[in-house]
C-alpha cells in the first residue's frame, strides 16, 4: 500500500509540474511583446521618455504628399500638411496623443493686382474722380505732389491743380522713351493723354 501511495503522489507532482510549466511557457510571448513595444521601447522610457505625452502638431509640407515626421511608429502618406510629433511632459505620466488642427495660410498671390486703367484724358483745372487716382499713382511712385495738405499722400483730391500738373510733368520727363518720343516731344506737357495713360496701364501692384 505504501508503494502505491508513493507512486500516486509522484504522478500528481509530475502532472502539477507539467501544468505549471505549460502556463509559464504560454505567458512568455505576451510578456516579451509588451516589454518590447510598450515598456522600455517605443512608448515607454525609450521613444517618448518617462512621463511624456507625444503631441502631434502640423508642419509645412515640402510636397504634395504629407508625411508624419518624428518618433511615430508609422508614417502614412496622403495629401495635406505634414505632422510633427513633439513629446510634452505630463503630471500623470500617462501616454496620449493630441492632434492640433492644420493651419492654412492665405496665398498673397491670389490677391487681385491693382491696375491703373484710365478711359479718358485729363488736363489742368479738370475736376474728375480719375484725378484722385492719378494723384495716388504719382504719390506712390516717387513723384509726390506735396508733403502736407491737399494732394499729399492720403489726402488726394479730384482737382487737377498746379501740384498735379508739376508732378505729372516730372513723371513724363522721367520716361521719355515711353511717353514723349512716340509723339515727337522732348519735354513733358502736363497733359494726361493717350501715351501717358497707356504707360500707366502697364503698372501692376
Automatic annotation (TrEMBL):
<protein>
    <submittedName>
        <fullName>Peptidoglycan-binding protein</fullName>
    </submittedName>
</protein>
<feature type="domain" description="Peptidoglycan binding-like">
    <location>
        <begin position="128"/>
        <end position="175"/>
    </location>
</feature>
<dbReference type="InterPro" id="IPR002477">
    <property type="entry name" value="Peptidoglycan-bd-like"/>
</dbReference>
<dbReference type="InterPro" id="IPR036366">
    <property type="entry name" value="PGBDSf"/>
</dbReference>
<dbReference type="Pfam" id="PF01471">
    <property type="entry name" value="PG_binding_1"/>
</dbReference>
<dbReference type="InterPro" id="IPR036365">
    <property type="entry name" value="PGBD-like_sf"/>
</dbReference>
Amino acid at each position: 500500500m505504501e508503494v502505491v501511495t508513493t507512486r500516486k503522489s509522484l504522478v500528481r507532482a509530475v502532472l502539477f509540474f507539467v501544468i505549471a510549466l505549460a502556463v509559464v511557457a504560454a505567458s512568455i510571448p505576451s510578456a516579451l511583446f509588451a516589454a518590447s513595444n510598450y515598456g522600455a521601447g517605443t512608448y515607454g522610457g525609450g521613444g517618448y521618455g518617462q512621463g511624456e505625452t507625444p503631441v502631434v502638431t502640423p508642419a509645412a509640407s515640402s510636397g504634395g504628399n504629407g508625411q508624419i515626421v518624428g518618433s511615430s511608429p508609422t508614417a502614412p502618406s496622403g495629401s495635406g500638411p505634414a505632422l510633427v510629433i513633439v513629446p510634452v511632459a505630463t503630471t500623470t505620466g500617462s501616454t496620449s496623443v493630441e492632434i492640433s488642427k492644420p493651419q492654412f495660410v492665405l496665398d498673397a498671390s491670389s490677391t487681385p493686382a491693382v491696375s491703373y486703367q484710365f478711359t479718358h484724358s485729363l488736363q489742368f483745372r479738370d475736376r474728375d474722380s480719375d484725378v484722385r487716382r492719378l494723384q495716388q499713382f504719382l504719390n506712390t511712385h516717387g513723384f509726390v505732389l506735396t508733403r502736407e495738405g491737399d494732394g499729399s499722400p492720403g489726402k488726394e483730391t479730384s482737382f487737377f491743380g498746379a501740384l498735379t500738373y508739376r508732378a505729372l510733368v516730372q513723371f513724363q520727363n522721367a520716361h521719355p522713351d515711353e511717353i514723349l518720343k512716340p509723339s515727337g516731344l522732348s519735354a513733358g506737357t502736363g497733359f494726361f493723354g493717350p501715351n501717358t495713360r497707356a504707360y500707366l496701364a502697364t503698372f501692376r501692384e
